[in-house]
Design goal:
- It is a single chain.
- With about 120 residues, the protein is an alpha+beta fold.
- The protein is built from three helices and seven strands.
- It has a three-stranded antiparallel sheet with strand order 1-2-3, with no helix packed on it. The protein has a two-stranded antiparallel ribbon with strand order 4-7.
- Helix 2 packs antiparallel against helix 3.
């Protein structure tokens, strides 16, 4: 919940078990209904959106392209079950780097790996 308040331009919502709950709307939506498929985004835009989260001291906790959706041409993050605010962590730089590397691998696998 803190992630959406702190960085609303890059966060769609908070999910539980593959479903997205919206306060005041009653019920749930499948993650795919939160936005378009990540493949319609540029890899750089996906990486930039993670940088924006990190700039707000938010660590996502599960940095894969499957947790990014396209909302009006912009990369938005979903599935914040493992996310946390990082302002009090001494190892923040290492954790951010790990998330960037995890996302880079996920992007490489999704965008640049040929499946034969």
């Amino acid at each position: 919940k803190d992630a959406k308040i702190k960085c609303p331009d890059f966060v769609v919502g908070i999910e539980e078990n593959g479903f997205q709950r919206y306060a005041g709307k009653g019920g749930v939506l499948l993650q795919s209904e939160a936005g378009g498929h990540y493949s319609s985004l540029k890899p750089k835009d996906i990486l930039d959106s993670l940088t924006a989260l990190h700039a707000e001291s938010i660590l996502h906790g599960d940095c894969r392209v499957e947790n990014v959706v396209n909302v009006d041409g912009r990369a938005r993050w979903i599935d914040f079950r493992k996310a946390f605010l990082s302002n009090a962590r001494a190892d923040i730089g290492i954790l951010k780097l790990k998330e960037v590397k995890q996302l880079q691998k996920s992007i490489a696998d999704a965008f640049y790996t040929d499946t034969v």
